[in-house]
Specification:
Elements lengths: L1 H18 L2 H24 L7 H16 L5 H19 L6 H19 L1 H6 L4 H26 L3 E3 L3 E5 H21 L6 H29 L14 H22 L1
Antiparallel strand pairs: 1-2
Length: 261
């Protein structure tokens, strides 16, 4: 089921990322982000933090729109977010002892999912952004695949036992090898105008940071006591499970191309 789901999903996502219009890609990112943050609110509810799901989803959508317009409305978004979150508490709750928890958890979820995920919109807006976003996706995808199967086949030493006992050092190394392979393949086929050293370096950086993103979501799941963020994707768990590495790798990818290239 895991492989079958991948065979169906990968061509669809690739087609939207590479061939789709900017509006179609925005709609795709918005659907993914809103689904992921809905999973996030369901998870934190398990530890008694209700949060504010509807305001959080609205703020996530507004934040993505700000990214779509090159971050021109970030200052305004900060004001709207502050008023919305405090206003939501005043209208819905009366227990002051949990007010900061609800506001903080909601804001964290919005910034975690939409704030980090929005960098994909900035990358897509670059010249040749379709190829670049596909490059990022392949770095993360191939890294995740090789880490999973490399860990199952060769894994012996735990990478971070307290956070995720199933992740191994051998799987981590296999994942970095997969990310480097993706960097080489895409660099040779799609980005021949870019030096191969840059392709490999950004692949290595995104591979490393992407694994931290995977561990960060594992920490969240460990905290709330769940194995997957949801079961919406057959054989893969939830949407947040599938984009956790991408959420961390995307900003690194953007910063590298913005500051270095």
């Amino acid at each position: 089921m895991r492989i079958l789901t991948g065979l169906v999903a990968v061509p669809v996502v690739t087609g939207i990322a590479y061939y789709g219009s900017s509006l179609l890609f925005l709609a795709f990112v918005a659907v993914v982000a809103l689904t992921a943050i809905s999973e996030y609110f369901t998870m934190i509810d398990r530890v008694g933090i209700n949060g504010f799901p509807i305001p959080g989803m609205v703020l996530s959508l507004l934040l993505l729109l700000s990214f779509y317009f090159d971050g021109r409305f970030m200052m305004e978004w900060g004001l709207v977010a502050s008023v919305t979150l405090f206003g939501s508490w005043f209208l819905q709750e009366s227990n002051v002892k949990i007010a900061i928890d609800q506001i903080a958890y909601t804001l964290f979820g919005v910034l975690y999912v939409a704030g980090l995920g929005g960098y994909c919109l900035l990358i897509r807006s670059f010249e040749g952004g379709g190829a670049l976003i596909l490059f990022l996706f392949l770095i993360v995808w191939l890294g995740d695949i090789t880490a999973y199967y490399g860990g199952k086949r060769f894994g012996k030493r735990a990478l971070a036992r307290a956070v995720s006992p199933s992740k191994t050092l051998e799987g981590s190394i296999a994942g970095l090898s997969g990310s480097l392979l993706a960097g080489y393949i895409v660099g040779a086929w799609f980005l021949d105008y870019m030096m191969m050293s840059h392709c490999l370096l950004v692949a290595l950086l995104c591979g490393i940071i992407g694994q931290f993103g995977d561990l960060a979501e594992s920490l969240l799941k460990r905290h709330v006591g769940v194995k997957d963020s949801s079961n919406i994707i057959p054989g893969h768990g939830g949407v947040l499970d599938r984009i956790d590495s991408l959420l961390f790798a995307g900003p690194v990818f953007y910063c590298y191309f913005k500051l270095v290239l």
